[in-house]
Amino acid sequence: MTERADRGPTSRITVQAVGVPVEVCVRGDRAAEVVARMHRLWELCPAPPGAAARAVVDVVFDSRPEAVGHALTEGLVAGLNLEDLLQVVTQRITVAAIDARAGECFMLHAACLADPGTARAAAFVAAGGTGKTTLVRTLGAGRWYLTDETTVVLDDGTVEPYPKPLSLRRAPDSLSKNETPPTTVGLRAPTADVHLAALCLLDRDDAHEGEPVLSRLDTLDAVVALVPQSSHLPRMRRPLQRLAALCEAVGGVHRVTYRDAATVAGVVDELIGAAR
User: Fold this and answer.
1) Helix (H) or strand (E) segment spanning residue 59
2) Is a pLDDT exceeding 90 seen at residue 1?
3) pLDDT digits (tens, 9 = 90+) for 184-196
């Protein structure tokens, strides 16, 4: 820990996000509180020893409103409430890491689980707030948790783990969320390389009744559906052709229409194997 005259103590932590070491630099008289919480929240995303940061997120956590206000005018992550601040820090880490990997690989807005026995992974693509975190929280026990946010697929089909904290709503209709360590809800990170074996579009419908409906999209429709849920796709070489090839390599893209995440268990079993 070092000292700065303008904003007091500084604490740092480096986490691994979508394969990118991201340093979080926290300043302010309550900086140590943020880093202490982050060590627990990000326990499944340690950066490799000695890894040089490819992205930096600057944060101010201070008991003085004027210090927080000044930091916000500079575009920094800042706040007076720790829970609210941690939610924004998670978002900034994800964005910084995605930006750092622009053009390097496919990055889909998708949750991902894998079977520990076969290392087969299934990615579930959906827009924000439409069921990804609920799916992994409900069905992740007994499987490997890759991510609930951004699924990174390399050229050989390997999935880059990003077992970030879960952002769980404080109330059913609340926009505010609490960052939660994955291990507290029974999730575990992969211990070996995993490969993408299935790609699904989540279609959560409160009016849907009965078992989930699984329908296969043709390649063109799949590409059209996946493009809006991809990050920095235009930065890749021949992006649409490569995305189409990815869809075909996993046997096509399926749309899963359902209401409750628990009912999708059989679909996940069919795609990658039963939970262990």
Assistant:
1) strand 55-61
2) no
3) 999 999 999 999 9
3-state secondary structure of 179: strand
Q: Is this model's pTM higher than 0.85 or not?
A: yes
Cα 253 from Cα 42, distance rounded (Å): 31
Q: What pLDDT does residue 275 have?
A: 76
| Rounded Cα gap, residues 45 and 43, in angstroms | 6
If one counts every other C-beta atom within 10 angstroms of the C-beta of residue 129, the result is 11
Distance CA 39, CA 77 (A): 18
Closest CA to 139 of 192, 83, 176, 185: 185
Chain position carrying tokens 């390997």: 158
Report which secondary-structure segment, H or E, holds 26. strand 20-27
Which candidate, 168, 161, 86, places its Cα nearest to that of 133? 168
